[in-house]
Structure formats: structure tokens, C-alpha cells
Amino acid sequence: MPSEGKVMALYQGSVRKKLLILGATMLLLIASTLYAISRGAVEVPLYDLLAILFGQSSDEMLAYIVYEVRLPRIVMAIVTGISLSCAGAIMQALLRNPLADPFTLGVSSGAAFGAALAIVAGASVFGINLVQSGQWMIALNAFAFGCLAVLVVYGLARLKNSSTTVLLLAGVAIGQLFSAGVSSLKYFSDNEALKDLVVWLMGGFWGAKWQVLQILIPLLVVSLGILVKYAWDLNALSAGEEVARTLGVKVKRIRWVCLLVVTLMASTTIAFTGIIGFIGLVAPHISRMIIGTDYRFLLPCSCLVGALLLLLSDTAARMLLSPVEIPVGIITALFGAPFFVYLLVKKRRDYWA
Q1: N or C: which terminus of the chain has fewer CB atoms within 10 Å of its end residue's CB?
Q2: What is residue 194's predicted lDDT score, i.e. its pLDDT?
Q3: Which residues fall within 8 angstroms of residue 303, CB to CB, at 6 or more apart?
């Protein structure tokens, strides 16, 4: 039997390895960010880019392109990737289901309907233009309907003992219901609202602005702070509800608090980006493969991987058919849908071991 010192050494070695993985992923994200800023219709050489970022450049045109055009979009992609991937990781933990994420559980469709309702009804019902001035109202509407979607799906699954099949079918059904609602809004909206709605539904970062990020970044920081606090409890919950209760974990409270927080994270980002699928499904699974199931490390790794995947997807969307831009939702579906099918076919739970 290994001695206590040897066990501690193995544990410390494992922690160092995981920290190295997190550090390497962070460096890869930074490198990808610099690459994304430099690429586009106007190329920004690395030397000029570093000069602009450190305030040493006198080229006002390049500085405007970097700070007002590309950087808000890139930060928006990173924030959205973090929100969706973290939401996916938490949902998979709470529901003990490897296929759970904001897209498959109908949260994206619910949030999309809420945001679309604010966009279309804002000018005609409330007398204000919500697209321009009422961004908090759009986020609040998206959150409310995102919560409604996850509550209905979770409630239906509980009726059948949280069956994976019932969970997925309920998510599909609720998603289709809200999609029908969005289609109805498109049909009855006027031309200006229809234009805003159609562009928004494609999923992308065309509307990324610093004003929007001033809303999203504080919400993201607070939400991540709450979720990281529950990392140990999520580790206990991964062993089963009974085990978690014997360890003093308040399972019901954690489940509802975390579900509300991740629904807030996912819904508010969806309100400003449109529907971007599969990031919340793919990033947590990749993270489990490379760093394990300890949520102290899995959560930050999922956030970094999700940000990296979405940033690279958006860069590809901008560059593949330049100057024509592909909606980023198409790029994420191209690699996300096959991954989803792979999980369905494999249907193993070795990531939870």
C-alpha cells in the first residue's frame, strides 16, 4: 500500500500537470487572439499590432480597425465561448447527462424567442427601440424564456426518472415550440424589426460593441465566481446524489442555483449573438479528455477551450470566403453535429469515471 507521502507526491504531480495544461491552453488562446486581430480585409502586421496595443503607433486608421472593429468582436467571441462552454459543463454535471448543453436542452431556443420578442415588440408595444437603447430588456427577456425552457425540460425529464431519451426529446420539443414562436414573430413583424431579427438569428458577432460587453463581462465574472465556489460540491455530486448528501452537500439548492446562473450566462450572450450551437457540448467533453473530471480544473479548462473554439470558428467564418462572411453558427454546426452523433453512437460514460 502506497505511503501517505507517495500519495501526496502523486497528487501534487497531477495538479502540476493540470495547471500546465491550463497554462498551455491560455497561451494558445492568446496566440489565437493576436492572429484573429491581425487577419482580415486589412492586414495588420504583428509588429504594428503590438505597437497599437502598447500605444506606440501613430497610424490612426489601423488603431481604429483594431480597437473599434476587431477587438470588440474578438472579445465578444471569447465571452460567448466561455459562457456557453461553462453552461454546458455545469448542465452535464447537474443532470448527470453527457448530452446536456444550452442548445440540446432548448435554452438557446427559449432565449432566442425572448430576445426576438423584445426586438419585435419593443418599438410597437413599449414605444422604445430596444435594439438601440434597451439592451438590458433584451437580456432580461432572453433570461426569462431561457429559464422557462430549462424548467419545462427538466420537469418533463424528472417525470421519467431523468431518462436521457426523455431529456433530449423534451429539449427538441421545447426547442421546436420556441422556434415556431420565433417564426411567428418573423411573419408578423414590420420590415425594420424583421431585418434586425433575421440578421440576429443567423448567429454571429456583427453587432459586437463595447457597450454590450460592458453588460456581459460583469455578469460573466459574477457568474463564474458563484460557480467556482461550488466546484467541490460538483465533484461530490458526480459520484451520485446519495453520496453527495452524505458528504453534506445540499443537492437541491446547488442544482437550482447553478441552473439559474448558467441559464443567465447562456441566455444573455444568446440575446446579443443569436443562436450558436454545440460549443456547450463539445468544449466540456474535450476538456474532460485532456484534464479529467475534477471541476476545480474542468470549469476553467472548459471556459478556455470554448473560447478558443468559438474564436477560431469566427476567424474561419471571416476568412474562408473573404470578403463574404459566413455566420459563425454554420461553422460550429459543421464540427459540432458530427461530435454530437459520435456521443450518441458511443453512449459511454467513461468521462464520468
Answers
A1: N
A2: 67
A3: 81, 82, 85, 86, 224
